[in-house]
Amino acid sequence: MPPDNADDARHTGVRHLEVSPEEDGQKLLQFLSRRLGPDVPGSLLLRLIRSGQVRVDSARKKPFDRLHAGQTVRLPPLRVAAPAPEPGPGAPALAVLAQGPGWIAVAKPAGLPSQPGTGHADAASTRLAAMFPQATFTPTPAHRLDRDTSGILLAGTSYQGLRALQQALAAHTLRKLYLARVHGGLAPGQALTLRDTLAKAGPENRRRVAVTAQGKPALALARCLESDSRTSLLEIDLRTGRTHQLRVQLASRSLPIVGDRKYGRPDDAPRMMLHAWQIVLPDGTSIRLEPDW
Predict the structure, then answer these.
(1) Which tens digits make up the pLDDT trace of 243-254?
(2) What is the Cα Rg of the chain in Å?
(3) For 10-61, how does the pLDDT look when each residue is reduced to its tens digit (9 = 90+)?
(4) Which CATH class for the 175-288 domain?
(5) What are phi and psi of 160, to 5 degrees?
(6) pTM of the prediction?
(7) What is the CATH number of domain 9-81?
(8) pLDDT tens figures, 144-190
């Protein structure tokens, strides 16, 4: 950070941050990182905590001590980088499909990444933040959908809600069902067990996922709903969440997803027909969203 350029840095005074009920259970370092955003480096926060300049209810704490609702965190004066410019106005809000204690389900359109990255500030996570600007805990996606995959995206609206979603995904007590239009004719009602090991290969800017002898296990259960002479519509129960899993598994069985230009046909349809259409939460709550195709 240039030391004397007011355009590149800003000063803050002593701040007292109260832990909200939505932030209950977070670790101190995590709480500060979320509240202050990427403008304040994690290394600086660690140094401030370990030197005792950050206090919780006037007491010293360690970076990974958990906080409780109602506690007050004191921050010393900081000199930090000026915030990065926000994405330009006009990005539409995500449609809210359902919500409950600690969670929200939104519709992610095809073409929108789940998280921002190099060259694209617009993402489902940034739109969620813009939709709830006053939230003390910014709604955070609990899983990802590929940029070109449309459908239901779950986000935690509290730390406990986010953890519950992530734990349900890890324990496979939360079901995710997809619809995929694939090239190839299958018989209606025909079932497929997609069980493979997958691994990434190639340089980062052209990285692909492939079925390999050694890699991470991938499992999904597919069923053909309807078929014509050229394509079939599959409903797929995704049991693991590997990168590009369904795209790779189907393409390796000569059933590439229509519109998948990375693993399918280069002269294919203008969009990929893969859609997260139903999620069933551990308590039995079912959320559905049919694809526009």
Answers:
(1) 999 999 999 999
(2) 22
(3) 567 899 999 999 999 999 999 999 888 877 888 999 999 999 999 999 999 9
(4) alpha beta
(5) -65, -40
(6) 0.84
(7) 3.10.290.10
(8) 999 999 999 999 999 999 999 999 999 999 999 999 999 998 999 99
Distance CA 286, CA 109 (A): 20
The 3-state DSSP class for residue 54 equals coil
Residue 221 · residue 194 · CB < 8 Å: yes
User: How far is residue 108's CA from residue 165's CA, in Å, rounded to a whole number?
Assistant: 18
CATH number, domain 95-171, options 3.10.20.310, 3.30.70.2190, 3.40.309.10, 3.30.2350.10: 3.30.2350.10
Phi, psi of 4 (to 5 degrees): -120, 15
Domain boundaries, the chain: 9-81, 95-171, 175-288
Tokens for 225, please give them: 């709903």
Which of 24, 39, 122, 146 does the annotation list as catalytic? 146
**DSSP states along 64-75:** TPBP-TT-EEEE
Name every residue whose Cβ is closer than 8 Å to that of residue 260 and which is 6 or more positions away in sequence.
148, 247, 251, 268, 272, 274
Residue 146 catalytic? yes
Looking at residue 153, its amino acid is L
